[in-house]
Amino acid sequence: MSFILQPANEDDLPELINIQLAAFADDPFYILLYHGRPNGPEVRQAVIEQTRSQWREDLTLRAVKCVDTSTSQIVGFASVRIVKDPDMATQAPAKDEGNDEKGAVKGNLKNQKLAVPFTDIKARIWVDGESYISFGVLAVHPTHQRRGLGTKLVQWGLKICDEAALPGYITASPAGADLYARLGFQRVGDVVNKASDFEGLTEDLVSVCMVYGTDEARLAGMRVRVAKTDGPTG
């Protein structure tokens, strides 16, 4: 059995989103974000629509799919985009998308307190208008995990960083952070959403902020700025 990477396009989105929601079905962040229904049909369709819109609007975005050559089945995918003006990216106004299930999917990260520490920490890490490569969702279907496909997908993104001579940035789960660290990412700080701030959450949600391709002096500066963050980041 062998696997190859191929460019992904909009026609692949239903299959890609199925993989994403299956891969993160038990992830506490997804359960909170999608109100306990990360595999619901309304959630699935809303995520497809949201992702399609993002792909059309962001011309810097690149996506790749991992294909099982023996079956032609897509078993994983990843995406990256170039953030050319971090200041503007972190200050973009939020749009109210409603309170129903689709609205929760489309608007939750932008409109609720869940998003605040992510926006704040990015503003502290990326200053002086520095461009960088932002790593988006990376997902491998549960039936194909632990076969090195995650590594293959991360390396694809790192090649883009190296060719563009730009640093990379990702927020990873604590479980996924080890993979990124092995491939050259370095931890800058954590985003912590407190359980006490969200109904039904029994433990804090921790996301690890990591950068790639940054020299030691700049990395030290990032860590100092993150350490001074007020509020729910660490």
Automatic annotation (TrEMBL):
Domain N-acetyltransferase intervals: 3-215
Entries under InterPro entries matching the protein: Acyl_CoA_acyltransferase, GNAT_dom, Trichothecene_AcTrans
Entries under Gene3D superfamilies matching the protein: 3.40.630.30
Pfam families with a match to the protein in the record: Acetyltransf_7
Gene Ontology MF, one: acyltransferase activity, transferring groups other than amino-acyl groups
CDD domains linked to this entry: NAT_SF
SUPFAM superfamilies, sorted: Acyl-CoA N-acyltransferases (Nat)
Protein name according to UniProt: N-acetyltransferase domain-containing protein
